[in-house]
Amino acid sequence: MKNKFAGILINWYEEYKRELPWREISDPYLIWISEIILQQTRVVQGYEYYLRFIEHFPNIQALADAEEDEVMKYWQGLGYYSRARNLHAAAQSMNGIFPKTYSEILALKGVGEYTAAAICSFAYNMPYAVVDGNVYRVLSRYWNIDVPIDSSGGKKLFATLANELLDNERPAIYNQAIMDFGALQCTSLSPNCLFCPLADTCLALSTGTVLQRPVKQHITKTTNRYFNYMYVRAGACTFINKRTTDDIWKNLFEFPLLETAYPLAEEEFYALPEFQSLFVVGEKPLLRSV
């Protein structure tokens, strides 16, 4: 079963794989950059940003020697800027040499188990299975697994299964194959089951539960935050601040900000003691609430 499953995926991959700039290379630095970008960014969005970033920072030392503001500039548009700060800090810790073991790679700032496995597999062809959203979806459907993927038991189960199925002779190509299969064939909302090479043995398809897999137990909680930005000018100058707290957008620049617990009308905002302490109230400044 293991060899058949892997073989089918690899054969499919050879015909339908996505042509991506970080494929067909073994440079761990470039693979690391691509994996960090793809942590929170879709492939189609990250493609051009990756090319721009590695053109300016072609190797570890170039990234390590750069100023943080310069790194942020070339990360601009990707969001989740802590990724860029972690890349910069990790590059500075390497002394120009990318680590070669799973434990050393996992110890890099901003690198988790998935990213460490991906780098080991794609750069060094080491037998580490990658388990991302695409892999969860393919495995949960093929074996019709109803254990929540975000539970501790589910994570352990899928990690074990993924490693059992791994083609140890071709780990890199197998990992790329199962991820592309999930991204292109066994998609979240519109899986192409009619022309799926695994259809004959897919348990979720045979039981009509394809769209119910994978199962999740937790719903992400959201918190509303109310940012009141102030556009403040003095002659030809406009005031901006650099965020320095360990919060979102750390070390990025913004207009002066007062955060409130709930939305305020303009007059309510002007009456805030925090606002009063910042300005001598004369003409009302231009205010935009987000």
TrEMBL record:
<dbReference type="InterPro" id="IPR000445">
    <property type="entry name" value="HhH_motif"/>
</dbReference>
<keyword id="KW-0227">DNA damage</keyword>
<keyword id="KW-0378">Hydrolase</keyword>
<dbReference type="Pfam" id="PF00633">
    <property type="entry name" value="HHH"/>
</dbReference>
<dbReference type="Pfam" id="PF00730">
    <property type="entry name" value="HhH-GPD"/>
</dbReference>
<keyword id="KW-0326">Glycosidase</keyword>
<dbReference type="GO" id="GO:0006298">
    <property type="term" value="P:mismatch repair"/>
</dbReference>
<keyword id="KW-0411">Iron-sulfur</keyword>
<dbReference type="GO" id="GO:0051536">
    <property type="term" value="F:iron-sulfur cluster binding"/>
</dbReference>
<dbReference type="InterPro" id="IPR011257">
    <property type="entry name" value="DNA_glycosylase"/>
</dbReference>
<dbReference type="InterPro" id="IPR005760">
    <property type="entry name" value="A/G_AdeGlyc_MutY"/>
</dbReference>
<comment type="similarity">
    <text>Belongs to the Nth/MutY family.</text>
</comment>
<feature type="domain" description="HhH-GPD">
    <location>
        <begin position="37"/>
        <end position="184"/>
    </location>
</feature>
<protein>
    <recommendedName>
        <fullName>Adenine DNA glycosylase</fullName>
        <ecNumber>3.2.2.31</ecNumber>
    </recommendedName>
</protein>
<dbReference type="InterPro" id="IPR044298">
    <property type="entry name" value="MIG/MutY"/>
</dbReference>
<keyword id="KW-0234">DNA repair</keyword>
<dbReference type="InterPro" id="IPR003265">
    <property type="entry name" value="HhH-GPD_domain"/>
</dbReference>
<dbReference type="GO" id="GO:0035485">
    <property type="term" value="F:adenine/guanine mispair binding"/>
</dbReference>
<dbReference type="InterPro" id="IPR023170">
    <property type="entry name" value="HhH_base_excis_C"/>
</dbReference>
<dbReference type="GO" id="GO:0000701">
    <property type="term" value="F:purine-specific mismatch base pair DNA N-glycosylase activity"/>
</dbReference>
<dbReference type="GO" id="GO:0032357">
    <property type="term" value="F:oxidized purine DNA binding"/>
</dbReference>
<keyword id="KW-0408">Iron</keyword>
<dbReference type="GO" id="GO:0006284">
    <property type="term" value="P:base-excision repair"/>
</dbReference>
<dbReference type="GO" id="GO:0034039">
    <property type="term" value="F:8-oxo-7,8-dihydroguanine DNA N-glycosylase activity"/>
</dbReference>
<keyword id="KW-0479">Metal-binding</keyword>
<dbReference type="GO" id="GO:0046872">
    <property type="term" value="F:metal ion binding"/>
</dbReference>
